[in-house]
Amino acid sequence: MARKTGGNIKDLLFERTTGAFAFLVLFLAVLLFAVLLRESIPALRKFGAAFLVTGTWDPVLEKFGALPFIYGTLVSSFLAILIAVPLSVGAAIFINEFAPPWMKTPVSFLAELLAAIPSVIYGLWGIFVLVPVLRDVFMKPVTKYLGWVPLFKGPVYGPSMLAAGVLLSIMIVPFILSVSREVLATVPQRQKEAVLSLGGTRWEMLRIVIGQHCLPGIFGATILGLGRALGETMAVTMVIGNRPEALLSLFQPGYSMAAVIANEFTEAVGDVYLSSLVLIGLILFAMTFAVNLAAKWILSKMVARASRGI
Amino acid sequence: MRTIFGILARTAAALVLSLAVATGAMATDPLTINGAGATFPYPLYSKWFYDYSNANPDVRFNYQSIGSGGGIKQITAGTVDFGATDAPMTEEGMKKLPGAILHIPTAIGAVVVVYNLDTVESGLKFTPDVLAGIYLGKITRWNDPMIAELNKTMTLPNVDIVVAHRSDGSGTTDIFTNYLTTVNTEWRAKVGRGPSVNWPMGIGGKGNEGVAGVVKQTPGAIGYVELAYAKQNRMMVASLRNKEGKFIAPTLEATSAAAAGVAKSMPADFRVSLVDAPGNDAYPIAGLTWILVYKDQKDEARGKAMVRFLKWAIRDGQKMEAALDYAGLPKTVVEKVDNALKQISFKGKPLY
User: Fold this and answer.
1) ipTM reported for the complex, 2 dp
2) Chain-chain contact of B167 with A263 (C-beta, under 8 angstroms)
3) Which of A84, A205, B320, B346 qualifies as a cystine partner to A169, CB 3.0-4.6 A?
4) What is the spatial distance between Cα B287 and Cα B259, in angstroms, rounded to a whole number?
């Protein structure tokens, strides 16, 4: 950064102002962490590290543990990623590489429009459409024939971990889709043509191009989707069944961290109760922070390898 | 650059000017009374505030329906003029208050048991033990002999009972679990009462609409919602056996009858539970909702306006309750509340 100004007051003012904005963001993050930590002290003091592995949530006796919520958040989010990534990357490849021009714009526009729908609308649609359909068309037949598999154990109610995962996957598709499309578009046309000119099929061309060039970008898109899934509150709480128990079966109700905070915060009267909810918030904060940090690290490795490969 | 700064400066000047105008105008604005708390009486209170302010343009109300717990927190901190709650304050909570507080009952709510069965009509009969048995997970099928015995005229299907409850902390859950705690010793020992409890089983739905959603979408489901919600959505409701052994369908009259049943033994501070109330016509899962005001008001004008409004609410206000599906206070209770309002004072001077 060359600074030849010296006396230019406006430049200095501009630099200082934008600098202050940048630090404000940092300051807010630190403040958020500090306040969460301070407010969760009563719960930390009472339960300690056992809070992470305890499965009881009893507001009457003030006995709290976060295990079912941590489990529910992780399982529903990874389920969402598992469904959404192949779907959105596939759609991105189709739109960018195969779709006729008249189809490109409307399809991608509509897919991206999904991101603009408020989550409470997703939740309502989940209750009235997705959950009954999933229950009758998928869960009931599966549990009838594959009920012996622990993942598909009945009884089937409808609201469940699976419903939350499927709903979340629909919600994160637009994010992963649009970033994946951007990433695919960055591949130089000449590189693609080079593969084809050597006699490669379209599949081979895509495999090479994606493997060499796009993997870091698609991974980044996945993390973006994961971040959204981890924190999603309203839609999840409306379909997950809100049962504070860590059950292996995807057809059983579960609970997520964001959902329990949204559900119980307003009516939490006891000090330990309120503090336990804040502690769950702190754990969620730390979890998203860790996911992003890990993603940055993996991404840097991938970028390094990808650039070496070319 | 210059133009940008020019625009900024002009905007700032305009802002300052408009602020000055606003503060100037505020001096002649009507008095605004701030309140916060329960969501259950919110539709009723909005109607009251609207009608009252139309008749008395010098007073305005600002009510935040943030939940009973929030209302108690805010009145304890003194950030509002009144709080509102569906669950009376605990002794422990009242110790944290800066001064003595009054619980002013304004309306009665009932919690209704709803279900979804194809072959059965509205009006399935439940005893307290059957209801507790279902929510404890001991009665798991609809054709269980304990249910069948009470409902000989109905054909009960051989399907699983899907239990639904509220997932968010709420006064509705507090009244419902208070009822189960009162009528069933096993429930009292295992679960207890509160706005949120550790449910032995079932699916949690967020809000009345969440529970209703689960019940409507799931064949064989049972849940509980506010009376008004069940009525407006025409859900199938259960009749419950009350203290006198009569099966009572949930209606506004039966809910008011629950308050009339405890009127004689009403404590002076009105912190009374209406669940399992005596009286032939009393519906057993009912509860009062209260407005919380300090006995010693800090501001004479505000205190006076508050008392005037409460006097109006327990008289004229009661006439609006039925239209909005709330049960009104019985006359015997209104008289007692009226007397309590005389205790509100400013520096020892009554504001009534």
Assistant:
1) 0.81
2) yes
3) A84
4) 8
